[in-house]
Amino acid sequence: MNVGSEHKLCVLKAEYDRDGFVVVRGFLSDAEVRELRGRALPLADRMTSEDHSAGKYKNVMKSLHHYDSYLDAQLKRGKHVQFLEQLLGGEVEGLSVAWFGRPEGDPQGIGPHIDAVGRDGDSKGGVTIWFALDPVNIKNGCLQYLPGSHRQDYANVMPIPNIDQESTDVIAAELEPGDAVVHSARTVHWSGGNHSDEPRDAVSFFYTCPGDSVVHQASGFH
Ligand SMILES: O=C(O)CCC(=O)C(=O)O
User: Fold this and answer.
1) Which of 31, 69, 137, 154 has its CA at a distance of 20 to 30 angstroms from the CA of residue 148?
2) 220 in any annotated domain
3) pLDDT bucket at 124, cuts 50 / 70 / 90
4) Is any ligand 1 atom within 6 A of the Cβ of residue 205?
């Protein structure tokens, strides 16, 4: 996708501002997906065997950029950085690269949460761009969002209580490899278990927005 087109950017920005997340189709080329997979998955495998996992989530590895120079460069200067800055209308600062695996048959999803909260209610906080490395869908545990939730205040706890995950308002971000979904750190999101026989791998990049007058609290995942 040519995300440089001003009209497309305006459409994506309007959607992001309204819903607190936006799907960007075909952000990465096939070659870029191969490169990201080739860097992240073997590293995640190695880290799994050394047990670096994020608490109770054995298929989540954060801070990958500390172990791989390509991922570190992507966090700082990947083509998505300029895109995020255009989308948000301000600078972003890279905090972490994470692998979110959901192997076939893994029943463990991730409950409703936000990624960070600001001190003031109207802060944009941070932003995550999540790249699908496999086809991701409701059956293998894609991300799901509560649209507009970025405009409300939720506790930075996991799971956030009393979220109706069956609500007809909920949007499932079903993606193909190379598609991305961008969400505000204030948007309530979650993912289900993998009830399919296909793996679901993803890599996310998490940024704070230094221009916002906010104290950031990164979640357990970032
Ligand atoms: O990939 C997932 O299942 C969850 C990802 C997530 O919560 C995030 O990127 O903030």
Assistant:
1) 137
2) no
3) very low
4) no
